[in-house]
Amino acid sequence: MSRPRLLPWSEDGKPAYLHTDDPHSVLSQLADQMEETQLSVGDDVLEGARDVLNDPEAGAPELRFAATRLSECLCDALRVARSRGTRLEDYENRADEHEHEDKDEEADGDTTAQENDA
């Protein structure tokens, strides 16, 4: 079983995890959709923040609002990156294990063939 997946949400701001090896489970798909939504919102907030920063008449309240929203979106994006990074490591490790198993099976097969030839 792979490591628990860090979910992109929790009620109290603490990390929440999903334990499953099925990337197509209902909760896995919901988590994927939530991550995509969070990243899309981050794009929108970034665009709005740039507009505020480029406005020479923007005051402290507007700048504070933009900075607060950017901070929230950065937190979401970092959580998504950590979750995806962990899943990518697990995927790469499983691929390496399968590659080694395949090589071991090939080596065992070669030995058997050589023994039969002798």
UniProtKB/TrEMBL annotation:
Residues 11-22, 86-101 have a biased composition (Basic and acidic residues). Residues 1-22, 85-118 are annotated as: Disordered. This is Uncharacterized protein. It comes from Streptomyces echinoruber.
